[in-house]
Amino acid sequence: MARWNHVRWLHACPWPANPSVPSRDVWPHEAHSFTPWLLNNVDVLSDLLGMDLALEVAEHPVGGFSLDLMGRDETTGEVVIVENQLETSDHGHLGQILTYAAGTDPTTIVWVAASFRAEHRAAIDWLNARTDENTRFFGVELGVVRIGQSDPAPSFRLVAQPNDWEKTVRAATSPIPVT
Predict the structure, then answer these.
(1) Can you list the alpha helix ranges (DSSP code H) found in the chain?
(2) For the chain, what is the domain count?
(3) What integer pLDDT is reported at residue 146 of this predicted model?
(4) What average pLDDT score do residues 45-74 get?
(5) Domain assignment present for 56
């Protein structure tokens, strides 16, 4: 985890960072460069999400499709899936995360994109509000920053997340089914 501490430092750095480094300049191909990089550098995502994440499989088959990454929260043993997108969020990837979730039954669904349209952030918020307390959707923006002539560094930002308090209260106050 320590090898990416400079990413957190970049956010507080007094020198101007160039946030306009396109992610495709660092990872030209999502499946062949970014997905393997994230699989090998899972600590960056793990720190951001506050979980002990272990990504185990890249390009996991789900029916006739391929889920970018699948793993587990090592603390709970629950399934976590990650869908990557090196562009702005789109309807296609929103459909993909739902299809992959239906085929893998994860507890945590993470959508990583270069940026999120307001409509897609709202969709993640809506999913978090409407699903049970055991299902969590996250939206993570991927940026690439550079200070001066340094190597580009990833910068992840959480833009959508579940409101666990709301889900916990809703679960505790929902009527108990009569059997």
Answers:
(1) 5-12, 23-26, 35-40, 42-49, 91-104, 118-130, 164-173
(2) 1
(3) 86
(4) 95
(5) yes
